[in-house]
Each structure stands twice: as C-alpha cells, then as structure tokens.
Amino acid sequence: MTDYQRRLAAALALHFNAEPPNAIAPNGMKGDIKHLSPMHFLRCARTFVHTPLLIGKPLMRTFVLHDRVYCARCIAGKPHGLNDDNYGRMHPYFQNQNGITYYRCIAQERGYEKCGQRGVHSDVLDEQIVEILSEMVIPEDFRERIEFEVRRRLENAASLGRMEEIGKIVERIDLSWEQSFIDKEAYVEKRRQLQQEIEALRPIDYDELTEATDLIQNFRIYWNECTNLDNPEDARKQLIAKVVDRVFVYGGKNWRLYSTVISQSYLGKTK
Q: Is the backbone peptide bond immediately before 38 cis, with ω within 30 degrees of 0?
C-alpha cells in the first residue's frame, strides 16, 4: 500500500469515527479479500431497498448500488467539521446516446471543489462487487465464537439453559423409542412438542445467523437466480443492500474500486 493509500484509508476511518473495519478490502477489485470477523459478519446488511430510480420520462431504470457509491477523493479531503451526510456520494446517470449507465461525483454541482473523479460505469462496478462478495470467506469457528457471545447476554441465559434441558429430554425420548418403551404415536407427539418449545426459546441471533451464513456462502447463486425474477435489477439491488453499506471508488481515467464496507445493520438486534 502506498503512502497515499494509507492516508486515504486513515481518512476513511476518520469518516466513520472508527478504525478501518476488518471487512474493508483496500487493495481493490481482485483478491486480498479480508476474512470477515465473526461479529462483523453477524452485522451484514439488512435494509431492503425497493424504490427504483426514475431517469427521464417514461424511462425507469434501477441502479443496483444506488446511494451506496462514494468518491474516495472527496471523502479523503472532507473538510473537518462538515455536517453533510451526502458529501462524497456519487449519483447514478443514464446516457441516452449510448445507453451507458454510470455513477459520477457531483461535488462541484453541490457547491464544493471539483475533485477530478471520473465517471464509473455501473455494470463494471457491479461485477467487481459481486466478485468480492462471492470470494468472502467465513471463519471456520465463527459459529462457536458467536454462540459464546450470544450466551454472554443475560437475556439469553435462561432460554439457552432451558434449551439444554430439552435437549437432554429429547435424548431420553429417542432412547425410549429405540428400546420400544413408547409407541410411535406418543413418540412423535412428544418430539413435536419439544421441538416447538425449542423453536420458541431459540434466541433470534441463531435464525438470523443462519440466514446471513447462507447469503454470504451462496451469494453468487442468489445473484444469478435474480435473472429468473420479474424485475432482476431490483432484486439484485435488494440483495446487495443486505450486505453492502458503502463502496468507495478512486482514480481518474483508470479508476478502480478502492474499498467495500460491509454493512453493520444486518443484525441490529444483536448489538
């Protein structure tokens, strides 16, 4: 990483009032994708975005990364104390002449100094983001580590204790069934009741963790399956919104994806 890249990374960290998150991939498009830390993985994106962008009339066009693309040049040089949530955000545009969709920095149009960032083709940026998300690796022991964090929460302690008790009861019932101490009807009914109680007691973290795990591990599959839906681009927009909070791009003519920030709002209830 060059000195400028280090300064840029530091500026991005200051922008978020925190150290650079583990999920930032500062080396751009390919490879060098950081492993997600378990708790950062738990906080993958949750917000669904449903409203497509209207470009002209009657043309309606959806930009997959709408409101998530930021100019790294502007963010790195953001004036100290400036209170502008939209500062550095790049806006989507559609060129009628050639049908090209792209994002461009509008700092100058908003009254700020022109930064020199060139327009970014949306389809190229989409491909890079999908590649990054498809290559993310979840730590092998993430379930054990997250379960440890879940158990530490007092509100979950009683439920988890009861779940362990039910687990032991289930083992005894299974043994009774195997040894023909109870008939099939009684076994099935008792098993069903215990399973329902387990489901009612299970902390929300587990179900959301399962969903988040599936999304990260099979992101490419879900992305491709969107083509079978009525509105593929809107479906992909919602899919991306589950995982990505912000995307930073940097450069002039030969621009590149500078970093991708994984959203921390996916599992808001686990804060």
A: no
Q: How many Å from the N-terminal Cα to the C-terminal Cα in the chain?
A: 33
Q: How many C-alpha atoms does 246 have within 13 Å on its Cβ side?
A: 21
For residues 213 and 210, what is the distance between their CA atoms, to the nearest angstrom?
5
pLDDT digits (tens, 9 = 90+) for 28-75: 333 333 444 444 444 433 322 223 333 333 345 788 888 889 998 888
**DSSP letter assigned to residue 98:** T
CB distance 75 to 12 below 8 Å = yes
The radius of gyration of the chain from alpha carbons, rounded to an integer in Å, stands at 24
pTM of structure: 0.55
Q: State the pairing for strand pair 69-71/244-250.
A: parallel
Identify the three-state secondary structure at position 258.
strand
Per-residue burial over 126-164, b if 16 or more Cβ lie within 10 Å, else e, is bebbbebbeebebeeebeeebbeebeeeeebeeeeeebe
What are the CA-CA distances from residue 3 to residues 7, 35, 253 (Å)?
A: 6, 24, 21
Domain ranges (residues) in the chain: 3-139+222-266, 154-202
Nearest CA among 161, 154, 151, 163 for reference residue 200: 163
**Pair of tokens at residue 34:** 């950081």
Name the residue among 134, 157, 162, 132 with its Cα closest to residue 147. Answer: 157
Q: What is the pLDDT of residues 157-212, one digit of tens each?
A: 777 778 888 889 988 888 888 888 888 888 888 888 888 888 777 665 666 677 77
